């Protein structure tokens, strides 16, 4: 493993538009890291656009802050949410009938997706309170030894069952979930539903610590995720599809060369990945690393206007919260980086 390989790929992506060949390897992807402010929702929105170029995609917002829901729906009220689908499955028929169809077509709300087969399950602020009843149900199930394993398994796979049903109805072959920076509740169920995680890591101290915590949660038998998986009879642990270093090169003065501080954090993230190499499908975990620049005004415009970065054009002006922002020429670099990220998934 070497940082040089990662930096060489970064340079090739920026200068030559390098991408790998082949389609998406997994069915269910989850964007997750146990820290806020690393760019999960912005990344999820742009990934959904790139992934749905070639695959029919179901996206779900499991974060109670509902940032991704706002980007897609722009304040349009959704009749049903992920909470509406989860509640009767976790708590039983006394809390309503099971929802048979919960997603909406993204192109109805977001013009950029007109030619994309992409569907979305909206988030819900009620997910803030979701962990308490969820773990109460799991504890109740554990108290009955004769049926504990099967009931725990059913509870932990409730989100996966919802996704599978929705994907069948909407004829989707891939899914992408955005999660909260907190493990409990929706994030726990997302990991149980996931085939692979996409882990965004900002180049700062707290994000590096959260990367190590995320990997420990996935592998340490004393932690909640592995412990409950074992009580369910042994659920599959998701692979790491990508470690996405965000805000790279924000202070660099050289083209296609991250600044020294970014390189230091990349190296530390790589050292952590090496300790958990069994989580990666790649023989060399450095092959799963992708570097994304600070998207600056292009990122703000993308989120505020619900326009994927790939649809922004250099030189365009947009008004965001009273400020007139211009899409600068760096947007072409960002487009290459996003395409490369999807190509390694």
How would you characterize the overall build of this protein?
The chain is an alpha/beta fold and 345 residues long. It has a single domain, classed as P-loop containing nucleotide triphosphate hydrolases (Rossmann fold, 3-Layer(aba) Sandwich). The chain has 13 helices and ten strands. The strands form two sheets. It has an eight-stranded mixed beta sheet, sandwiched between helices. A two-stranded antiparallel sheet has the order 9-10. Helix 11 links the parallel strand 7 and strand 8. The longest helix is centred in the last third of the chain and has 16 residues. The mean pLDDT is 90.
What is the residue-mean pLDDT, rounded to a whole number?
Answer: 90
Number of domains: 1
Q: Report how far apart the termini are.
A: 19 Å
Total E-strand runs = 10
Q: Which stretches of 5+ consecutive residues score pLDDT under 50? A: none
């Amino acid at each position: 493993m070497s940082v040089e390989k990662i930096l060489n790929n970064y340079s090739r992506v920026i200068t030559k538009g390098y991408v790998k060949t082949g389609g998406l390897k997994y069915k269910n992807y989850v964007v997750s890291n146990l820290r806020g402010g690393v760019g999960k929702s912005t990344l999820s929105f742009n990934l959904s656009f790139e992934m749905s170029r070639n695959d029919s995609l179901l996206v779900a917002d499991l974060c109670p802050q509902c940032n991704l829901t706002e980007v897609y729906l722009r304040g349009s009220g959704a009749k049903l949410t992920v909470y509406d689908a989860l509640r009767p499955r976790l708590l039983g028929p006394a809390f309503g009938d099971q929802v048979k169809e919960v997603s909406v077509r993204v192109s109805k709300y977001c013009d950029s997706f007109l030619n994309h087969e992409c569907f979305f399950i909206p988030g819900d602020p009620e997910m803030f309170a979701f962990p308490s009843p969820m773990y109460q149900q799991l504890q109740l199930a554990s108290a009955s030894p004769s049926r504990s394993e099967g009931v725990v398994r059913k509870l932990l796979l409730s989100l996966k069952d919802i996704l599978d049903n929705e994907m069948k109805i909407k004829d989707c072959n891939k899914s992408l979930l955005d999660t909260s920076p907190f493990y409990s509740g929706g994030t726990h169920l997302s990991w149980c539903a996931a085939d692979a995680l996409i882990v965004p890591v900002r180049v700062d101290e707290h994000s590096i610590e959260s990367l190590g915590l995320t990997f420990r949660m996935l592998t340490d038998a004393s932690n909640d995720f592995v412990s409950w998986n074992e009580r369910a009879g042994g659920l599959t642990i998701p692979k790491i599809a990508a470690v996405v270093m965000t805000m790279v090169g924000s202070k660099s003065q050289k083209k296609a060369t991250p600044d020294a501080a970014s390189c230091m954090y990349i190296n530390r993230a790589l050292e952590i990945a090496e300790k958990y190499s069994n989580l990666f499908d790649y023989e060399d975990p450095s092959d799963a690393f992708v570097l994304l620049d600070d998207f600056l005004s292009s990122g703000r415009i993308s989120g505020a206007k619900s326009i994927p970065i790939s649809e922004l054009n250099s030189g365009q002006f947009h008004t965001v919260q009273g400020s007139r922002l211009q899409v600068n020429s760096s947007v072409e670099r960002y487009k290459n980086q996003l395409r490369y990220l999807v190509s390694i998934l």
